[in-house]
Amino acid sequence: MSLLLSGAKTIVFAGTEMQCLEIYTGEAYTIGLNFTDVSGNPIDITSYNLTAEAKYYNVDTVTYDDAQGEINLGNITDYTPAVVTPPTITVTKTNDALGLSSMFIPTDLTGGTGGTPVIPLTNGKGDPSILVIVSVDIERPDADVITNTNISKEPIGFIVRYQ
């Protein structure tokens, strides 16, 4: 299962290709999520449990290859100090039968409250840049063994570059 975001660029993080969007402090986004099979037909998500979580990283350099639609990241390390209060990212099912849901990215994605970052700023931007990997956690019953629960985590990257 993969998620494609309109206006996103592709990044590869730890060998995982994902869509990536830039976000500014104080911005909030609602992102539509559509669950489909390989043929593009909607998947009924009535029995799915959807949640989300965020993980933070420092990135020394961020360059763009517009021709390839790629973002190149250099020297990625865990963000320290850790974000004390992670944001509440909500995932809401909007039409179970048609596989439609949405994920709300709040203004405190950078770890502050009300759009106030806890990330130190240099010349109006985080230095180094901050990469936030938001994972949509999907729990669903196994089709063959109903007592088993399949769990997958679908990553989406947000570069918190200018704040």
Q: Could you list some keywords that capture this structure?
A:
single chain; 163 residues; seven-stranded mixed beta sheet; 55% strand; disordered N terminus
3D structure, described in words:
The protein is an all-beta fold. The chain has one domain. Helix content is 0%, strand content 55%. The radius of gyration is 17 Å and the shape is globular.
User: Which oligomeric form is depicted?
Assistant: single chain
Main β sheet profile: 7 strands, mixed
| Number of structural units classed as domains | 1
| Mean pLDDT over the residues | 74
Gyration radius (Cα, Å) is 17 Å
Percent range for helical residues? Answer: under 10%
Strand content: over 45%
Name the shape in a single word: globular
Number of helices: 0
Spell out the helices and strands N to C. EEEEEEEEEE
In brief:
The chain contains no helices and 10 strands. It is mostly beta strands and 163 residues long. Strands 1, 2, 4, 5, 8, 9 and 10 form a 7-stranded mixed β-sheet that branches. Strands 3-7-6 form a 3-stranded antiparallel β-sheet, with no helix packed on it.
Question: What is this structure's SSE topology?
Answer:
Layout: E1 9-13, E2 16-22, E3 29-34, E4 49-65, E5 70-78, E6 90-95, E7 100-105, E8 121-122, E9 125-141, E10 149-162
Parallel strand pairs: 2-10
Antiparallel strand pairs: 1-2, 3-7, 4-5, 4-9, 6-7, 8-9, 9-10
